[in-house]
Amino acid sequence: MIIAVDGPAASGKGTIARALARHYGLLHLDTGLLYRAVGMTVARQGGDADNPADAAAACAFPDSLLADPALRSEEAGPLASRVSRHPQVRAALLERQRAFAAQPGGAVLDGRDIGTVIAPDADAKLFVTASLAVRAQRRHAELSAHGNPVALEALSADLAERDARDMQRADAPLKQAQDADLLDTSNLSIDAAVQHAIALVDARLKSRH
Ligand code: CDP
Questions:
Q1: Which residue has the least CA distance to atom 16 on ligand 1?
Q2: What architecture is the 2-194 domain classified under in CATH?
Q3: pTM of this prediction?
Q4: How far is the CA of 5 from the centre of ligand 1 (A)?
Q5: 15-37 confidence digits (pLDDT tens)
Q6: Taking the domains of the chain in order of start, what are their residue ranges?
Q7: pLDDT digits (tens, 9 = 90+) for 98-107
Q8: How many Å lie between the centroid of ligand 1 and the Cα of residue 189?
Q9: How far apart are the CA of 152 and the centre of ligand 1, in A?
Q10: Which of 15, 180, 206, 209 is surrounded by the fewest CB atoms within 10 Å?
């Protein structure tokens, strides 16, 4: 069984995807980490994230980099978004994601193009969103909890810019797949969002049998 979870930054998709993986006993892949790894590698090599050749050269990063906490930093998000625009980068990361999705027993993948490109035949697809104001608040709380407060306005501007870049790129833009269920988490607690997600997936699985 494959479950695809897509949506914009700080929508709650990662938390929901991890909870779904636990609930259904599946392995989980946060595909954003792969793009973050490429973005950080470009930066560390002194390259330019907007340059396709620099970005493509950074795709051969070692698996061990995926455990580097720097990938979760605020600096890595925009770098990931910039390298993810290049078709060469998306192509280089495609097989890795497809192989993960195809493993025996199935998997939960979260990202931007899982339901549309990576796993178009997924058994259940969720498109998780929340208002920009709520997403900025969440990111603010998360960063403050880690002792790294960033002004709300700056976070909001960064999220809006990243969403626009992700939705407007030509290759695999962020969008809801036709057969995905929309889950707006703006007014939901984490528990409530997870319960809704499980109910939506259960309904999809039932309708398939
Ligand atoms: O955690 P957050 O939602 O802030 O970001 P992320 O999921 O780690 O993704 C970082 C960036 O990688 C996104 O802004 C996208 O530009 C890119 N990405 C993508 O293009 N396709 C994916 N499947 C996952 C991430």
A1: 81
A2: 3-Layer(aba) Sandwich (3.40)
A3: 0.94
A4: 12
A5: 999 999 999 999 999 999 999 99
A6: 2-194
A7: 999 999 999 9
A8: 22
A9: 20
A10: 209
